[in-house]
Amino acid sequence: MNVEVTPLPGIGTRHDFVSRTGRRIGVITHRDGHFDLVVSRQDDPDSCVASIPLTVEESAALANLLGAPNLVAQLRDQAPGVSTRQLPIAPNSPYDGRTLGDTALRTRTAVSVVAVVRAGTVHPSPQPDFALGGGDLLVTVGTADGLAKAAEVLERG
Amino acid sequence: MHDSSISLIELGAVFFGLGVLGRLAWRIGVSPIPLYLIGGLAFGAGGLVPLEGIEGFTAIASEIGVVLLLLLLGLEYSAAELVTGLKRSWLAGVVDIVLNALPGAAVALWLGWGPVGALAMAGVTYISSSGIVAKVLGDLGRLGNRETPVVLSILVFEDLAMAVYLPILTALLAGATLLGGLTAVGVALVAVTVVLVVALRFGRYVSVLVDSPEPEVFLLRVLGAALLVAGLASQLQVSAAVGAFLLGIAISGSTAENATKLLEPLRDLFAAMFFVVFGLNTDPSSIPPVLGFAIALAVVTTATKIGTGWFAASRQGISTLGRARAGAALVARGEFSIVIAGLAVSAGAVDKQLAALATAYVLLMAILGPVAARVVEPVTRVFMGKPRPATA
């Protein structure tokens, strides 16, 4: 993949690349530190269908959202035999509003929770008193069986 | 005491009035510059409220306005950006000069304003308003477009051309001979080169000189340095504005960013004063006789700017729509056309009508520019026979 870097005099820098589907996707880094997410038009690749201003926090959140699958892929590469999965806490899950310790995942399934992704932010190495909420994504590591069981625990209690 | 209270009331009324006009301008999506000019025309001789007793302040405030306009323009760019911009866009830059300076010069000669008047009008029609262009590109979400770097590098080229042009114009306005003119060209070229080299190699030392963690100290230092350099440059006949511009280029990195943030409100204040003073000094009744020429120039130079942008974008392999957008983006003229006209008129070496023509022309172009940038896409699509797609 070829990420092109274009200076925009007086404004900042643009980094963009062409996706497999032919869309140009890029980020403009403004001098004052805020970002624009830009996506090209399909019929006119020179221009943008959207140019979305993002604050520093918002772009960090977006980067985390896009980076989460990457994190899992890295774990998989580093420890063969161990699987990783992202398990969601559904809004009606019995653990919505309870702590990570309450799930007793480690004792019941030998699965470790290495991170919780919430609203685009990764909370690494959560402690047992970490309060879970609907919509959280648990990044978990364990055996295939353990992970299947863990998914069931989180769903049913 | 009585005098100063009247002056305060008048100044307050002017600033408040400008505030109302500025708000109105951004609401309807145009630059406030034409409205400031109209405000100045209204307050001038024969206007609604003739202002007396604040000339001393407004004169120096408008001088500071020009210095700040150019200083902030210099702060926008790093020397490295100027050099790459120059390398990338020199041919388009030359086309830009030829196409857009000629109509202004031709009209000035036609009206019998002589070679110096022609040089001044050439500058007025040549230079796009980087302020309006950058704002419009941002507002329309075109910063990510492929043609945008082309547009920006033409602006960079134009601003550098200004650094060479202004000292020459200043020298000729002061009645310099051919030799004097050539000396001014030499001094200007040397000054620009020296500053670029210093800024590339030693920019951080210049920055350290004015930098301070205390906003108050920093503001005083940077403003003081700008006025000092501008004054010295003016004394050397190199034009105060260029001195400020070159200082702006030499200040780099985070110092430049902080300086921009601190100085922006000041620039807006003093630059508004500059446009008002220009309007004040222009007699509204002198506009109608030159209005026809202004309209003709507006039509011709809109076409030539679109041609310039089209040419520059096509050299970068950009498709038809992008070429049209690049051209339309460059149409707006504004602050620097008025800076040039202001220099020419205050020197008294050109016909008084030049101010009227420049005012009418900028009024048209500052409004036409943003409109052209907005409508270019649908219009081009109609010409290309492609309807606007329903989805992205």
Describe the SSE topology:
The complex is a heterodimer of chains A (157) and B (392).
Chain A: E1 4-8, E2 12-18, E3 24-30, E4 35-40, E5 48-54, H1 56-78, E6 83-88, H2 100-103, H3 105-109, E7 112-118, E8 121-124, E9 137-142, H4 144-156
Antiparallel strand pairs in A: 1-2, 2-3, 3-4, 4-5, 6-9, 7-8, 7-9
Chain B: H1 2-27, H2 33-43, H3 55-76, H4 79-110, H5 114-126, H6 130-139, H7 148-173, H8 178-210, H9 215-235, H10 240-250, H11 253-280, H12 287-315, H13 320-329, H14 335-347, H15 353-384
> In this structure, how is the largest beta sheet of chain B organized?
none
- Quaternary organisation: heterodimer
**Beginning-to-end CA distance, first to last residue of chain A:** 44 Å
Strands of chain A, total number: 9
Shape of chain B: globular
Mean pLDDT of chain B: 86
Gyration radius of chain A, to the nearest Å? Answer: 20 Å
Estimated share of beta-strand residues of chain B: under 5%
Please compute the radius of gyration of chain B using only Cα atoms.
Answer: 21 Å
Describe the structure.
The complex is a heterodimer of chains A (157) and B (392). Chain A is of the alpha+beta class and 157 residues long. Chain A has 4 helices and 9 strands; from the N terminus they run E-E-E-E-E-H-E-H-H-E-E-E-H. Chain A has helices spanning 56-78, 100-103, 105-109, 144-156, and strands at 4-8, 12-18, 24-30, 35-40, 48-54, 83-88, 112-118, 121-124, 137-142. A 5-stranded antiparallel beta sheet of chain A has the order 1-2-3-4-5. In chain A, strands 6-9-7-8 form a 4-stranded antiparallel beta sheet, sandwiched between helices. In chain A, a hairpin with a 4-residue loop joins strand 3 (24-30) and strand 4. The mean pLDDT of chain A is 82. With 392 residues, chain B is mainly alpha-helical. In chain B, 81% of the residues lie in helices and 0% in strands. Chain B has 15 helices and no strands. In chain B, helix 1 packs antiparallel against helix 2. Chain B is globular, with a radius of gyration of 21 Å. The chains are: A alpha+beta (157), B mainly alpha (392). The interface between A and B is medium-sized, with 28 and 33 residues.
